[in-house]
Amino acid sequence: METMSPAMKAIGSSEVLLDGELKPAVVIFSEETGKIEAIIEGPCEQYLEVCGAEAAKEFRDVTPLVIMPGLVDTHVHLDEPGRVHWEGFQSGTQSAVSGGVTTVVDMPLNSIPPTTTMANFDAKKKAAQGQCWCDVAFWGGLVPGNLEELRPLAEAGVRGFKGFLIDSATPEFPAIDRDMIEAAMATLQGYRTVLLFHAELEEVPALPTPPEDPTLYTSFLETRPDRLEVDALNLIVKCLERATRSLPGPPPPVHIVHMSSKHALPVLERARAAGLPITAETCFHYLTMDAETIPKGSTLHKCCPPIRGHENQAHLWNALRNGVLSSVVSDHSPCEPEIRCCDSGDFLEAWGGISSLGLGLSLIYSKGATLPEIGRWCAENTALQAGLGHRKGFIRAGYDADLVLFDPREHHTITNSQLHFRHKMTSFHGTEVVGRVRQTLLRGRVVYDAEKGPLDTPAGTLLLDPIM
């Protein structure tokens, strides 16, 4: 075999995750292009026998670590510009690479301004420059009055558009109604983009009742009943059915973010069985936490939709394994500690959101997800959903050399002190897990090492290729 160029590297293991299967293989990549050049299946010893001593100089056998594709987390709130005191591109993307996430897609809200216009998108991109330790793509927002911005944003590289059917808790990102959903579907017909929905439908306020103890999780849980998710999903499906029948071109596919209720699953399953272009995700916290064990006053567990009961959680796992749900994401949604109400423990007043970016791989592996399942739910399907499946989410020749070296045997405990978030606090503090990311490679470059932390300088880029 010809001598490898110094820019060409090879890494191998007895277990490499290739298109859903763990098998012995060697991955050859270029540090110059950042691309995977070739994959040679078979034991590392066999590769060395064929390649000889010169090639061995540029080769690493990382057995017994598993080589996985870099994860793609398509639901992350980085909060910059405008709320960098909540998170920010630097701390958020450092957190990502610490957990094997090589690509994040930033949500359009919680930053000021939100990503709802071309001018706002320019501000977002400017804020991100030179601050990203992983690659970053962007969702746009769907809000009242911005229909004329959708096509220009899609052409500028926004991956899709998210709308709320309920109060988002941020006044700069108001909720939408049925008319707006249908208008967006008509506006984006024929575009290779996606409409995302926070699927809880605002209810008509009931007469006030004396509040239960606000420090009890059940007091908050009762304010976000399952029917909010079911009603919202029924409305979205009806809009999609109508658009499919009436529009001259195909409506954009729909994706439901952070589904938490088992009662919404049959609606989703029927819509998919009918051939409607609709997918849905769930989150690490819904798969690993349950309402029964949330302590009194532990407001770090508050999120919307809420974490529901243990029996509900089992249905989410089944839906993933049956293909009804397609992906698992973090919905990383941090904020400043003062509005978490940790001192008072008041769930009703606390800001909601779970901080978990970079923690998910070990969390769901510890709950019994296999590495091929994690690769499918957290890399392959998320990359495809965001229109990045041509370069991310898989270990294939021609793809970005985004790789994770994962130790599936190491036991450790998640602690606040190890976090890279701006505010070192998470509801997963104290959780014992199995499996740890030892290294993360972004386009062939080591950007995180478990012994050294994140690389000193950012290596991420903004993913702005339009997906029309």
Give a structural overview.
With 468 residues, this protein is α/β, with parallel strands linked by helices. It folds into 2 domains: 8-64, no CATH class; 70-390, Alpha-Beta Barrel (TIM Barrel). It contains 12 helices and 18 strands. The strands form 4 sheets. Strands 9-10-11-12-13-14 form a 6-stranded parallel beta sheet. Strands 5-15-16-17-18 form a 5-stranded antiparallel beta sheet, with helices on one face. Helix 4 (147-155) crosses helix 5 (178-187) and helix 5 (178-187) packs across helix 7. The longest helix is centred in the middle third of the chain and has 21 residues, at 226-246. The two termini are 41 Å apart. The mean pLDDT is 95.
